[in-house]
Amino acid sequence: HTWPVGIHQVLRPDLEVIPGASKEARITVNSDGIRGPEMPADRHLKRLLCVGGSSTECLYLDDAQTWPYRLMELLNERLPDYPCWVGNSGVGGKASREHLKFLQETDWLQKTDAIVMMAGVNDLIRDLAGAPDGDISSAGAPLWTKARLLALVRWIWIRERAKQSVVQDDRGEWYRDARRKRRASQLVAESPLNEVDLGHYEQRLRSIARLCKARGVQAVFVSQPTVWREDLPRKIEDTLWFGWIPSKGYLASGSLRQAMDRYNNVMRRVCEMEGIDFADLSAMDGKAEYFYDDCHFTEAGADEVARRIVSAKPMIGRR
């Protein structure tokens, strides 16, 4: 759930393929393998860690335009006498299964004051693919789905013993192929999701919530906003590539909206039952200016995420 240490890279995405991304996206990874600035040694300064998948990673956005970095800026503007550091441990393809394992097996809960977790969409996509308990490796998905759909380009390759990286596709051209596959496939209205899938997701969220409480760390769970809705304009529909269902095709955008709402409602319920802070981003749903595909944020979208989290939880990390 961390990156190779010491990466300093600039991506130059094709803005026709990824509209709303950064013209030049600097990616900086600190000595802890976290995207963003070094974590301060001063324990009087509050430390927050954002956990999630590619929607948190913000691959094609500049460091300073990602929503974790904007969250840090907005919190410090609001409470300048109580400064905070915010790190970004979002990694493409990770879901609640990996989030839980990461928090169980690392010392980050000892080093931070708050965990901000956006989750749901990768759990949904894995469950649509029929992955047992969210494990995509045994879902029988085609190679391009494993490599692109769920890992959002497992794109970093580290040369042996060198702090250098090569991005396989810094312009985002692979999106063309992923979108073309969806356009050429049958759209399915009926979702294969069931209560067992949602039950596993709920169990993992409860485990994360209880783990944070046991360690005395504030947890803020963030709902997953997406562009999905009924009657999307064709221009927006053509940017989609999520929702593959084995041997059937792709789930239609309106059905994807309903499915995502179910996962977000599970998160809301867990927060209510476990006493965990919840930041509801559903007001962003279906608004194309915030997304360049199904669920990945434009610069405007990432800024809106940060603003809504701050509005919902202005004292995050200051308990």
3D architecture notes:
This protein has 319 residues and is α/β, with parallel strands linked by helices. Helix content is 36%, strand content 14%. The protein contains 11 helices and 12 strands. It has helices spanning 54-57, 67-78, 96-105, 108-111, 121-128, 143-149, 174-183, 195-214, 234-237, 253-274, 299-312, and strands at 8-11, 25-28, 46-51, 84-88, 114-118, 156-158, 165-167, 187-188, 218-222, 244-245, 249-251, 277-279. The strands form 4 sheets. It has a 5-stranded parallel β-sheet, sandwiched between helices. The chain has a 3-stranded mixed β-sheet with strand order 8-11-10. Helix 2 crosses helix 11, helix 3 (96-105) runs parallel beside helix 8 (195-214) and helix 8 (195-214) runs parallel beside helix 10 (253-274). Residues 136-167 have low confidence and may be disordered.
For the biggest sheet, the summary is: 5 strands, parallel
What's the helix-strand series? EEEHHEHHEHHEEHEHEHEEHEH
Which percent range fits the helix content? 25-40%
Show unreliable segments.
136-167
Mean pLDDT metric: 89
Number of strands: 12
Q: Judging from the principal axes of the Cα atoms, what is the shape?
A: globular
Straight-line N-to-C gap: 26 Å
Estimated radius of gyration: 18 Å
Tell me the structural class.
Answer: alpha/beta
Number of discrete helical segments = 11
Q: In what order do the strands lie side by side in the largest sheet?
A: 4-3-5-9-12
Content of β-strand: 5-15%
